[in-house]
Amino acid sequence: MAKIGFIGCGNMGGALIVAACKGIDPKEVVIADHVPEKALELAKQSGCRAASNADVAKEAEYVVLAVKPHLIRDVAREIAPVINEAIKNGQKKIVVTIAAGVKVSAVKACLGENVPVIRIMPNTPVMVGEGMILISGDGDAPDAVGEEVFTEFQAILKEAGEFEKVNEGAIDYTTAVSSCAPAYTYMFIEALADGAVEVGVPRAQAIRLAAKTVLGSAAMVLETGEHPGVLKDNVCSPGGSTIVGVTTLEEHGFRGAVSQAIVKATEKNLSLGKE
Fold first, then answer.
1. How many CB atoms are closer than 10 A to CB 140?
2. With contact defined as beta carbons under 8 Å apart, do 166 and 134 qualify?
3. Among the three residues 167, 198, 225, which one is the final residue of a domain in this structure?
4. pLDDT tens column, 182-225
5. What angle do CA 20, 184, 72 make, to 5 degrees?
């Protein structure tokens, strides 16, 4: 029996599949996609096995539904008979959803209330093993997922990055930071590089300097435990070039624009489950 299976081999599903195949024996990973050729190609590259949706549901202990929010209910209903039959026969079955905006209760409504469900929200850096993955369960349910399940699941996907356990009620808000903000960070890196190119730095060098600087700055926040504002002030020498740049960003509404991006992304996350 496979340890973990994935239904959906898109960008995020594919990244998680690669991570799983690095964290455990690829032979314990089974995958499926609505385009069978995509699953077959990824299985060939990763050393796992391609199968049908029903086979994934039948064979895997952890069944990850790596599909878009508007498809999650249909896929859950499709595999529900297989999942419930397995549970009835005493087999371990945990369904995992990565669908933004879709609550655990909505997935359980399609699968059956007796089916344990975990909800995760990964971000794109899982593709390089540096992901920030939010994880939650249905804590109000009588069959709420136990801590040992969370621990085992995180161990399977340890090569994807770091997990952060949150209450499901907060996941749509925290997702706006962890899952949406990489796009804003890429825009910031691109803007830094554009400015560097404008003053004469070659493009490739400008991108590398910008990316490494953002990476190092993030590490400073995490490793020192200092408030970002304190670290910012430490760089701003009186009358220096940095404070001029900071003032320019403030004049152009930098902080307000970033904050509003998070607010608007949260509003969209909350609406996704209703679409």
1. 10
2. yes
3. 167
4. 999 999 999 999 999 999 999 999 999 999 999 999 999 999 99
5. 45
